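Record passed on underneath.
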Amino acid sequence: MDIAPLDGKLCLVTGGAGFLGRHLVAALRAKGCPVHVLDTAPSPAPEDGVRWFQGDVRSHRDVLTACEGVDTVFHTAAVIEALAHAPRSMIKTIESINVGGTKNVIQAAQRAGARRLVHTSTIMASFCMGAEGGDESAPYSTARDLYTATKIAGERAVLAANGQGGLLTCAIRPGGIYGPGERLTYGRLIRALKMGVPLIIFGDGSARLDYVYIDNLVDAQLRAAERLIQGSRVCGEAYFVSDETPINAGRFSIELVKNMGIEPRLFRLPDPVARAFGATWERFYQAFGRPKPLFTVANVKLCDIDHYFSIDKAKRDLEYAPLVDTEEGLRRTAVEAREYYDSL
């Protein structure tokens, strides 16, 4: 398949202060690409070839300014919130970022004359929809949690924009993202371990979930961008991306902790109890605005229902293959996680 190399092209990474965003910026710099970063976080120390725009994807002006002169946009900015029931103010905020912000990115990219847009979607696009080894032909999920619903709406908008205003688009659907320095999910786990909290395991441990090591995901994103050329079968398509070794979510956490040199204490919670408890807590939070649930019904389902997909389409169209397997990815992640644990 023909490709249009990114080397030297000006790129924009939204959410560039996040885990995926930081790694994308580094990979693009390694290709000699000057990079614009748009994030609500203030600029870190100045970096050669990186221009930081402190702004919000909800602001069309902020996004348009960051898009000036850009060839390729990598849209990673999003809020991860798995509540199905939440205060109205939270719902509006998440919708405005994950859906409204994505539409702003599309429109700004078109107005600025960008050629390519790679959108970071999610495996949750087909959450609970016949996921046992299925592919991208699976229907969109009907799940009601905020993350699933808003990310689906964002993906739909991106794919519908393909070919409009000179912009070519595609979406990458990663499994659970992990790697050294990830703090949103595994940072929380490590902090809980430090406080002596046991690992909470939902279900019987048989359900499997896709994970993707950060280097694998970044590679897939770059491959997708380089194949967004007129007439390519990548244009307007979505792709599942993973390590191709699905594993139970509880088992994944256990293996990470063991690789850190820690023998975890486990607390197993049966599925019916976990779901009922999560649903009740969500309703209470919706009504009173606190305390925020430690886990949601969607979190439980990820642990007790199979959620793994074929990556054959990515192999074929993106010539993707995992660079790092899960065993090695966990080992690398655990080395840094142990350092973080000891620093707390």
